């Protein structure tokens, strides 16, 4: 059972909360509709339940809040709007990327594509899908981890009647298997046809909590909306006269004591009754019961819906069998088979996710290609001038540029690593905020460092080959301090990648990561160079030996030169600036992480 208790959203600038003390339940084996007009707080309620917005209250998914569920994606499937995926990613690539994050086999992606009728569109890019196909892919993403609970926000919005029937048939099939289905809608008739339980809200507050039978009886019948300062007396007179005439008339007192809803009568009869007894009437209108207490099809403002508490058991969904869509193949609309064996979570799962996310779009390949071409061209131009040192030529780093193309490319890839997570939040709905996942952070750091090292190596090889082709093989020679140069070059590219990644994770935008990378040579290096220098500098010779004395484990003497090379890198103005920037970003990241729940 799903239990939402006391959901209250945070106030913004003195405005009333979008959700105010909302409490309801959604049972297993039943489709529950959260009904309300646009702006009633339905979406805000779902985001509070999923812990995506600050507020008060708690939601229990089979007795546990979401942050205490070990595998949230296997407990809750979420559909909030369109597919939160990169538009250049394919439908199959999106599902396989989420398979890696959820920890299910990659073959689950093809099963879901068949189940939702997208088996022939697996290689279609998300940005080119129609609204109906996009919604089918969103349902596949929600079902990926074989969750017990489905939470969907206006899933049939904008769909044709046939597509909406297919969608609600899929939801009914999930409920028939014992799952929990909660979806929001503003269509009262659709809620009556497809749900077994209806929870009506308005202005963030609970209006009615009913079975579908009570909902259809009280909300979808013609009624007379009456407003009178003597509403209680008028209700008693109308009920007494109806019993005397043996007519079936039901009078419901609304939340406001001055408003009535009269079922089984007409405006003329109510008006005559009020006139005979000398009771003033401020409103008298024929209308059809609707979800909105503020607007109805009648000529006046509609009366608010009655607050009814029903103890009846939820009725089964009338659409228990999935309906085939137009052009659907045989068996489409059926749920995919359950996952029998769920692999245990491990450290490679976020790494697989990050690799699929990184190389699932052409942006990564394009950035690497541009960095290689630009580096090769710059190295040829720099090699023409004999005064440029060979390391600068191989790294394609002219003095006019703040950073070489390889470092800029690595920084951009690192910034996109977290920037895309916030721009296309494929994981946020199911697993909480992205930066608080330490396992995902470590995976991003490892993958971005690996890509940066590969890019640095490819740039050096491309530059050397370009110089050999243009000027011959005499120009390229292995310098005596090749180890120190390799450490410096690797540290620069990896440091830029990490600076972009951490800054984008802190400020939640790619541009912040790129700005942090460019701030190293533009701001930090001049700041360090402007620091006053002592008249006499002390030597750090013998530092590796002294570090060996402090260490618990004794490393071999051959490692001393690596330690010395790392120290020389940090002592360089660019290395010192990069180290200082990374230290500040790490501290800011940890401070932001410790303020909330830490998630893996």
How does this model look, in words?
48% of the residues lie in helices and 13% in strands. The chain has 600 residues and is of the alpha/beta class. A 6-stranded mixed beta sheet has the order 5-6-7-3-8-9, sandwiched between helices. The protein has a 4-stranded antiparallel beta sheet with strand order 11-12-10-13, with helices on one face. The longest helix has 34 residues, at 438-471.
Set out the fold topology.
Blueprint: E1 2-9, E2 22-26, E3 30-35, H1 42-49, E4 55-61, H2 72-75, E5 76-80, H3 91-102, H4 107-115, H5 131-142, E6 149-153, H6 161-176, E7 180-185, H7 188-194, E8 197-202, E9 205-211, H8 212-219, E10 222-227, H9 231-244, E11 250-253, E12 259-263, H10 267-276, E13 283-288, H11 348-359, H12 362-384, H13 390-395, H14 405-423, H15 428-431, H16 438-471, H17 482-507, H18 510-529, H19 543-550, H20 560-571, H21 573-594
Helix pairs in contact: 3-4, 3-11, 7-8, 11-16, 12-14, 12-16, 14-16, 14-17, 14-18, 16-17, 17-18, 17-20, 17-21, 18-21
Properties at a glance:
single chain; 600 residues; alpha/beta; six-stranded mixed β-sheet; four-stranded antiparallel β-sheet; 13 strands
Quick summary:
The protein is of the alpha/beta class and 600 residues long. 48% of the residues lie in helices and 13% in strands.
């Amino acid at each position: 059972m799903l239990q939402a208790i006391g959901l209250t959203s945070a106030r913004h600038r003195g405005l009333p909360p979008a959700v105010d003390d909302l409490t309801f339940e959604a049972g297993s084996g039943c489709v529950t509709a959260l009904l309300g007009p646009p702006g009633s707080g339905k979406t805000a309620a779902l985001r509070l339940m999923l812990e995506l917005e600050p507020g008060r209250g708690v939601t229990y998914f089979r007795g546990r809040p979401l942050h205490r569920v070990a595998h949230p994606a296997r407990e809750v499937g979420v559909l909030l709007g369109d597919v939160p995926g990169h538009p250049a990613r394919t439908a199959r690539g999106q599902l396989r990327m989420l398979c890696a994050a959820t920890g299910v086999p990659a073959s689950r992606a093809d099963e879901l594509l068949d189940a939702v009728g997208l088996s022939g569109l697996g290689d279609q890019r998300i940005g080119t899908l129609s609204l109906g196909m996009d919604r089918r892919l969103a349902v596949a993403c929600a079902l990926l981890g074989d969750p017990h609970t489905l939470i969907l926000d206006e899933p049939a919005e904008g769909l044709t009647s046939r597509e909406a029937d297919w969608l609600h048939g899929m939801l009914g099939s999930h409920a028939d298997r014992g799952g929990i289905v909660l979806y929001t809608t503003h269509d009262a008739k659709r809620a009556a046809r497809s749900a077994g339980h209806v929870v009506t809200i308005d202005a963030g507050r609970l209006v009615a909590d009913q079975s579908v039978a009570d909902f259809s009886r009280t909300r979808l019948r013609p009624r007379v909306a009456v407003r009178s300062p003597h509403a209680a007396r008028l209700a008693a007179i109308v009920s007494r006269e109806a019993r005397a005439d043996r007519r079936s008339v039901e009078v419901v007192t609304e939340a406001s004591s001055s408003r009535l809803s009269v079922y089984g009568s007409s405006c003329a009869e109510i008006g005559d009754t009020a006139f005979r007894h000398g009771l003033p009437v401020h409103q008298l209108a024929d209308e059809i019961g609707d979800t909105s207490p503020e607007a109805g099809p009648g000529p006046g403002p509609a009366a608010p819906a009655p607050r009814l508490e029903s103890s009846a058991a939820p009725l089964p969904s009338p659409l228990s069998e999935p309906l085939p869509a137009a052009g659907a193949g045989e068996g489409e609309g059926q749920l995919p088979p359950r996952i029998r064996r769920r692999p245990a979570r491990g450290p490679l799962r976020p790494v697989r996710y990050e690799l699929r996310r990184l190389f699932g779009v052409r942006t990564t390949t394009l950035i690497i290609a541009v960095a290689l071409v630009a580096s090769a061209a710059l190295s040829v131009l720099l090699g023409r001038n004999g005064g440029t040192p060979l390391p600068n030529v191989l790294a394609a780093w002219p003095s006019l540029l703040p950073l070489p193309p390889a470092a800029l490319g690595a920084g951009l890839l690192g910034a996109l690593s977290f920037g895309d997570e916030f721009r296309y939040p494929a994981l946020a709905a199911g697993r909480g905020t992205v930066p608080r996942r330490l396992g995902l952070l470590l995976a991003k750091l490892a993958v971005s460092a690996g890509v940066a090292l590969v890019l640095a190596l490819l740039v050096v090889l491309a530059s050397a080959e370009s110089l050999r082709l243009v000027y011959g093989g005499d120009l390229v020679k292995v310098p005596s301090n090749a180890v120190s140069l390799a450490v410096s070059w690797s540290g620069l590219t990896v440091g830029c990648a990490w600076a972009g990644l951490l800054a984008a994770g802190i400020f939640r935008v790619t541009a912040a990561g790129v700005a942090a990378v460019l701030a190293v040579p533009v701001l930090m290096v001049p700041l360090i160079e402007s620091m006053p220098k002592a008249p006499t500098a002390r030597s750090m010779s013998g530092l590796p030996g002294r570090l060996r004395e402090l260490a618990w484990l004794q490393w071999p003497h051959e490692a001393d030169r690596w330690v010395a090379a790392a120290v020389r890198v940090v002592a360089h103005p660019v290395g010192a600036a990069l180290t200082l920037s990374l230290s500040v970003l790490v501290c800011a990241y940890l401070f932001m992480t410790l303020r909330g729940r830490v998630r893996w």
